[in-house]
Write a sequence for this structure.
């Protein structure tokens, strides 16, 4: 499987993890204790975390591809 397919699968897993953590944090743990503005600010921070994590994830996947020993493939 090519590196970008693995990174795409990991991206979907990362998205699910961040959305689940954000939901539990804002709608379960802080339910009724935060204002709408605070809820939006918390959600925005989870969005930043997703974006930053996505860039890091794809960067690591690409670097692993560059640093991995290359196999000789038969044509």
């Amino acid at each position: 499987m090519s590196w970008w397919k693995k990174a795409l699968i990991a991206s979907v897993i990362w998205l699910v993890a961040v959305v689940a953590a954000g939901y539990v944090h804002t709608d379960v743990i802080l339910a009724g204790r935060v204002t709408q503005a605070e809820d939006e600010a918390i959600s925005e921070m989870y969005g930043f975390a997703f974006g930053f994590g996505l860039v890091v994830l794809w960067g690591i996947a690409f670097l692993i591809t560059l640093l991995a020993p290359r196999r000789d493939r038969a044509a």
Summary: The chain has a mean pLDDT of 90. The chain has one domain: 3-66. The helical segments are 3-29, 36-67. The two ends are 17 Å apart (CA to CA).
